[in-house]
Amino acid sequence: MAAVAASRKSTLAGRKTRTGSNIVVKVIASSLRKGNVVDKDGKLYVILFAENIHPGKGTPVTQLDMRRIGDGVKISERYRTTEMVERAYVEEREHTFLYSDGEGFHFMNPESYDQVVASEGVVGDFAPYLQEGMAVQLAQFNGVPISLVLPQRATFEVVDTEPVTKGQTASSSYKPAVLSNGVRTTVPPHISAGTRIVVMTADGSYVERAKD
């Protein structure tokens, strides 16, 4: 009986398991983000795109586009937002972005000073938002970078946008703009070229005027 009770207690508390050197935790699908790693059918996948969809009618769902770490195969999966998915916590440590070249994107572990190179496929759409000296969370599998997570916000200069027109207010419609990293976004009408702004690294959307 004691063994049965212990087993039941373990099952109830056992949202966390270990697969090889990786810890797997069950989380709701809606909590997953780009760069996270999930364990599906015993194989690890890196999330390339995650979107929570809330239709007017029907059940809210989470759309995930993923790349299998073993062979690079890409798949798309759709889960109910409250459905439990196994998130894998692979080796993930803070690294500092150094530079990029033909070999890839170079990062350094600030504690050991070891350097690793992430491929363009791993960095993906994050590339324009990487800044020299930026601290990122870099995940590695068997010593090879597989995904990274950037700070949610970063600061860039607006290099091109429509000039401010007299009578425009912050509540007016946003206007197109180009940032110093080449990303196109939209900004409030009172923002002019040369202004430094804070944007979301997930999609380049405007947050606020930089305070520095």
Automatic annotation (TrEMBL):
GO terms for cellular component: cytosol. Residues 154-209 form the Elongation factor P C-terminal domain. Residues 92-146 form the Translation elongation factor P/YeiP central domain. Pathway: Protein biosynthesis; polypeptide chain elongation. SMART domains: EFP, Elong-fact-P_C. It is found in: Cytoplasm. Keywords: Cytoplasm, Elongation factor, Protein biosynthesis. It holds the Pfam family EFP. Signal peptide: none annotated. GO terms for molecular function: translation elongation factor activity. InterPro entries: Elong-fact-P_C (IPR015365), NA-bd_OB-fold (IPR012340), Rib_uL2_dom2 (IPR014722), Transl_elong_fac_P/YeiP (IPR020599), Transl_elong_KOW-like (IPR013185), Transl_elong_P/YeiP_cen (IPR001059), Transl_elong_P/YeiP_CS (IPR013852), Transl_elongation_fac_P (IPR011768). It comes from the Bacteria. GO terms for biological process: peptide biosynthetic process. Its main location: cytoplasm. NCBIfam families: efp (TIGR00038), PRK00529.1 (NF001810). HAMAP family: EF_P. Involved in peptide bond synthesis. Stimulates efficient translation and peptide-bond synthesis on native or reconstituted 70S ribosomes in vitro. Probably functions indirectly by altering the affinity of the ribosome for aminoacyl-tRNA, thus increasing their reactivity as acceptors for peptidyl transferase. Belongs to the elongation factor P family. This is Elongation factor P. It comes from Mesorhizobium hawassense.
